[in-house]
TrEMBL record:
Positions of region (Disordered): 1-20
Pfam families: 2OG-FeII_Oxy, DIOX_N
Organism: Hevea brasiliensis
Residues of the Fe2OG dioxygenase domain: 202-301
UniProt protein name: Fe2OG dioxygenase domain-containing protein
Lineage: Eukaryota, Viridiplantae, Streptophyta, Embryophyta, Tracheophyta
SUPFAM superfamilies with a match to the protein in the record: Clavaminate synthase-like (SSF51197)
Length: 351
């Protein structure tokens, strides 16, 4: 086991170190097949719905917010929220914390390096550099975050302010997620407290990404096209670079709105809604001249909790279209398969 770990460490090359080296070309292992490379031309931007959460508690306006979220979930699977209750300084502190972490010498970050997708804290590059056939221009640090008291002592100790700054943001975004799940459920015509206990006991995985400047961004991606497994993902980003696939299967760039957070539906919502709502396919592009940071807070039900279509949304006219699956099933899948392209819930579609 120790020899395998040393071999894995020896083969590790971070995207950030490649940028620092000043290499004029992308190494061959980062070059994607032509069919999945980003377009050479400019990608059009989309206009995402902006939901003002401050009016949720105005009785005369609440229905408007519910309708806005219903439309966004049906048509895009993606929206942004403002007046969400997380102070701007907490968001900026969280971004500063990850900038500080990724600026550490590689030796310090390698103390947290792991190929094990089940590790509660994991530093790495690409998706999983030990198994990826094609690598992606991305370094990351992931850690479990809920309940925070069980995990925060395992988080990076450097920079010294990391745990405090990231802890405040993680706690705030966990509370926001519970509020949003209630609204999404209500928009489906369901009781907003449906799965309340399962949501409270569910998981929160924080993924902090660094997408360094890339000498040949037209040949590679920071992240491949995929949908997120869980229920909701709440994203904070330092600059643009995220793209989503629209209903016509065209890639469109997601704008950056100061103070807003991006909310995207995951596979669990698609399955639970019996296909009324769709998880959104997205990818991360890279830039020749700028470094991008993002914090994705991925929320899902507990590891072993099976998710299937809600019984309230299944009838003779709308039979169950998905099989049950769990977070553990998902982790087993990604730890045993090299993924290039889409990981979508269609592998759980019945028939």
């Amino acid at each position: 086991m120790e020899g395998k770990r040393e071999s894995s460490h020896a083969s590790f090359t971070s995207a950030m170190n490649l940028t620092k080296s000043g290499a004029p070309n992308v190494p061959s292992r980062y070059i994607l097949p032509r069919s999945v490379r980003p377009n050479d031309g400019l990608t059009p931007s989309t206009t995402l719905p902006v939901v003002d959460l401050s009016i949720l508690y105005h009785p005369s306006l609440r229905s408007r917010v519910i309708n806005e979220i219903r439309s966004a979930c049906k048509e895009i699977g993606f929206f942004q929220v403002v007046n969400h209750g997380i102070p701007l300084h907490v968001m900026k502190d969280a971004l500063e914390a990850i900038v500080g972490f990724f600026d550490l010498p590689l030796e310090g970050k390698m103390l947290l390096m792991s190929d094990n997708v089940h590790a509660p804290v994991r530093y790495g590059t690409s998706l999983n550099h030990a198994t990826d056939k094609v690598h992606f221009w991305r370094d990351f640090i992931k850690h479990y975050s809920h309940p925070i008291s069980e995990w925060i002592h395992l988080w990076p100790a450097n920079p010294p302010s990391y745990r405090e700054k990231m802890g405040k943001y993680a706690t705030a975004v966990q509370n926001l997620q519970k509020q949003l799940m209630g609204v999404v459920l209500e928009s489906l015509g369901m009781n907003p407290n449906y799965l309340k206990d399962e949501i409270e006991e569910g998981s929160q995985v924080m993924t902090m990404n660094c997408y360094p400047a890339c000498p040949e961004p037209q040949l590679t991606l920071g992240m491949p096209p995929h949908s997120d497994y869980g229920s909701l993902t709440i994203l904070l980003q330092s600059c643009t670079g995220l793209q989503i696939m629209d209903q016509n299967k065209n890639w469109v760039s997601v704008p950056l709105t100061e103070g807003a957070l991006l909310v995207q539906l995951g596979d669990q919502i698609e399955v639970m809604s019996n296909g009324q709502y769709k998880s959104v396919v997205h990818r991360a592009t890279v830039s020749p001249g700028k470094k991008r940071f993002s914090i994705a807070s991925l929320h899902s039900l507990a590891l072993n909790k099976k998710m299937g279509p809600a019984l309230e949304l299944v009838d003779e006219q709308h039979p169950a279209s998905y099989k049950e699956f769990s977070f553990r099933d998902f982790l087993y899948n990604i730890s045993n398969n090299a993924i290039l392209g889409f990981f979508l819930p269609n592998q759980y579609i019945t028939g």
